[in-house]
Amino acid sequence: MLMPSIIGESLFDDFMDFARVGRVVQNGNNQSIMRTDVKETDQGYEIDIDLPGFKKEDVKAKLKDGYLTIQATKDANDDQKNKEGKYIRRERFSGSVSRSFYVGDKMKEEDIHAKFEDGILKLTLPKANAQKADDSRYISIEG
Questions:
Q1: Beta bridge partners of 70
Q2: Which 3 state secondary structure label does DSSP give 119?
Q3: CA distance 89 to 16
Q4: Which DSSP helix (H) or strand (E) runs through 25?
Q5: Residue 101 contacts by C-beta under 8 Å, 6 or more apart in sequence?
Q6: Is the pTM of this model over 0.70?
């Protein structure tokens, strides 16, 4: 790091910090992936999850035991090589990330509306549902 950070972020934090980049990607804790906004409305909740670089077919949403789990997987292209030389630094994410939200054991998959658009997964959930879901099922994602 070239400059001290006053509030935890510096313009140069990522510029030459090679060791930190490897650690972030290997642990799956990339801070720019799966940033989430949750908004409460009169009818329910709207959840927006950032999934930059992912395609719709890379994303799965599953409801099981009252937990809504979002998982996104991106495969690495190990066969890509630079003809001019070797890579010094690679920052593009490769791997799997997931995040779970407790939505209640009465929520059913047909109550949840999901849409994937411009790298953002948009979910809409109602506030309450009177029937309990029987088993886990995947949620269809439009896009």
A1: 61, 99
A2: coil
A3: 9
A4: helix 18-27
A5: 47, 67, 68, 69, 70
A6: no
In the chain, what is the straight-line distance between the N-terminal and C-terminal CA atoms, in Å? Answer: 40
Residues pairing with 111 in the sheet: none
Residue 111's SS3 state is helix
105 in Cβ contact with 66 (< 8 Å): yes
List b or e across 47-64, with b for residues whose CB sees 16 or more CB atoms inside 10 angstroms. bebebeebeeeebebbbe
pLDDT digits (tens, 9 = 90+) for 96-139: 899 999 998 889 999 999 999 999 999 999 987 544 455 667 88
Task: Give CA–CA dist 76/45, Å, rounded.
Answer: 34
- Vertex 88 angle, CA 86 and 93, to 5°: 105
Find out whether 43 and 120 touch, Cβ atoms under 8 Å: no
**Closest C-alpha among 54, 55, 49 to residue 69:** 49
Give CA 117 to chain center in angstroms. Answer: 13
The region, left, alpha or beta by phi > 0 then psi within -120 to 50, assigned to residue 105 is alpha
Rounded CA separation 40/38 (Å) = 7
